[in-house]
Design goal:
heterodimer; A: 312 residues; Rossmann fold; 2 domains; 38% helix; globular; B: 183 residues; five-stranded parallel beta sheet
Chain lengths: 312, 183
């Protein structure tokens, strides 16, 4: 009867920016418990059986959407899915109207992905539901950062003091921003690496090191998080060709073998094999890419469970 | 806050030993039975009972696990304090076809035990579930749940609290009844 109770400090999960270090640790501890649940023969708990969650995706997604849906189902929530491509959004409905119509059908929580940065923050001011940001443009992707940090913690025991290099298209990547914020809050050192055109000018104000040389980043880091080139967000050419990018910033076996230490390779997916990472590296024992995916469900269960506890 | 001691010292130990002997009457050498302590406070009772059982002749091993029931509670979100933080579950056997003895320190409304029976289903279908509690707060049940083995019975009102401390974690073995002083 005397179970201790701690709370997450926010009502929505819009970005890592709003979380405290305690919040992140609480999410990790809860995710650890859910990971145990996921390894049982019956992978389901009834915690959210009175909650209905809408997954509202205005942008394509496989992993994140599937991961959220599984997390919701394993918490026994009712789930509805909404994809913008097959909806009235194409008939000219506004974001607030779309979401309010969904809420009128008695939905309690919204998991949203949107191509515009800040869409979640905007919506949270105008609708009466709890929001979880599943990626907003090039802004934040908080659950991805949490599961990345959780995977690092699982591999090394602690995130504090670890050196993590984020390599690739930093400019267009929401994963990069959320990861930097999350890792810095947990006391890790972060370096970003990529072509000059794909590194934001003022990124060092976030407390990260910057390099334009892949080998330097790899020699410095314990963990390399390889990002995809986000061609769909690039309206101009930032580098001459994918082939050239791959030669200068692609991670391959020879490069990895030339290092005098073992590093861990991460990738948030989707992987473009042969561009930012070669097949033999992605499938090697250095890679924890599939552990990240596995941890994603546990992290999302923890986030939804803790947010549901903030309901009146 | 008024504190009255209900049980401590040697009498506490005698009660634990009596419970062990009652268990042996029904479960003999524990070859078909498992003990499960309910997190967070029932685990100290479970561990103590298992240790004592091993002192009794003829019992070499007692399968023991700890069960967290946080995600199965029906009062999640109904407390002012927000969600309950889970403890860990460690059950490294399946309970299929076994006689399970659930253990918790205090039985009050019965809701914890309902949640525990729910949570236990993930580990198989037991042949039988029994309940052992150190303190039974009589006449306060909200569900039709009654214990099979009882340390002591207490008559109490809702505003009172029963606290069990264990020498392993709280320096003394003691059961205390806490009463809010009328102002």
């Amino acid at each position: 009867m005397t179970a201790s109770s701690r709370q997450i400090s926010t009502r929505h999960l819009l970005g890592i920016k709003d979380l405290t270090e305690d919040d992140i640790q609480l999410i990790f501890e809860t995710a650890g418990n859910f990971k145990d649940v996921l390894n049982r023969p019956i992978k389901k708990v009834p915690s959210l059986r009175d909650i209905t969650i809408a997954n509202v995706f205005f942008e394509n997604s496989t992993r994140t959407r599937l991961s959220f849906e599984l997390a919701e189902k394993r918490l026994s929530a009712d789930v509805v899915n909404f994809a913008a491509s097959s909806s009235s959004v194409s008939k000219g409905e506004t974001l607030i109207d779309t979401v309010n119509n969904i809420l009128a059908m008695k939905v309690d929580m919204i998991v949203m992905r949107h191509p515009y940065p800040g869409a979640g923050v905007f919506l949270s001011r105008h609708v009466d539901a709890q929001l979880v940001n599943a990626g907003d443009g090039a802004h934040e992707h908080p659950t991805q950062a949490l599961l990345d940090a959780f995977s690092i913690r699982e591999r090394y025991g602690d995130v504090a003091g670890r050196k993590i290099a984020i390599i690739g298209d930093i400019l267009h990547s929401r994963v990069a921003l959320s990861n930097i914020l999350c890792l810095r809050k947990l006391g890790a050192e972060v370096m970003v690496c990529g072509p000059t055109t794909l590194i934001p000018k003022y990124i060092s104000s976030l407390g990260v090191k910057v390099t334009y040389n892949l080998l330097e980043a790899l020699q410095w880091c314990d963990v390399a998080n390889m990002l995809r080139i986000q061609l769909e967000r690039q309206d101009i050419a930032y580098f001459p060709s994918l082939r050239e990018y791959s030669m200068l910033y692609g991670l391959n076996k020879q490069l990895l073998d030339s290092l005098d230490k073992e590093i861990t390779i991460m990738h948030p997916g989707p992987i473009n094999r042969g561009v930012e990472i070669t097949t033999d590296v992605a499938d090697s024992h250095h890679s924890i890419i599939l552990d990240q995916v596995e941890n994603g469900v546990a992290i999302r269960m923890a986030v939804l469970y803790l947010l549901a506890g903030k309901r009146g | 806050m008024k504190r009255s001691v209900l049980l401590e010292g040697q009498k506490f130990q005698i009660t634990i030993q009596r419970l062990c002997h009652q268990l042996v009457e029904n479960h003999a050498d524990f070859s078909d039975s498992v003990v499960i302590g309910i997190q967070p406070r029932g685990i100290y009772l479970g561990r103590r009972i298992v240790d004592e059982l091993k002192q009794i002749q003829g019992i070499t091993s007692v399968p023991y696990g700890e069960l967290d029931i946080t995600f199965f509670r029906d009062d999640f979100r109904r407390k002012d304090s927000g969600p309950l933080v889970p403890s860990s579950t460690s059950i490294d056997f399946i309970v299929e076809g076994k006689k399970v003895i659930l253990m918790d320190d205090v039985l009050w409304t019965g809701r914890t035990i309902r949640a525990a029976m729910d949570a236990l289903q993930a580990f198989g279908r037991p042949a039988k579930i029994e309940l052992l509690v150190l303190v039974d707060r009589r006449f306060s049940r909200q569900l039709p749940i009654e214990p099979d083995y009882i340390g002591i019975q207490v008559d109490s009102i809702d505003s009172q609290k029963v606290a069990v401390s264990w020498k392993e974690v709280d320096t003394h073995d003691r059961i205390i009844l806490l009463t809010e002083k009328a102002s």
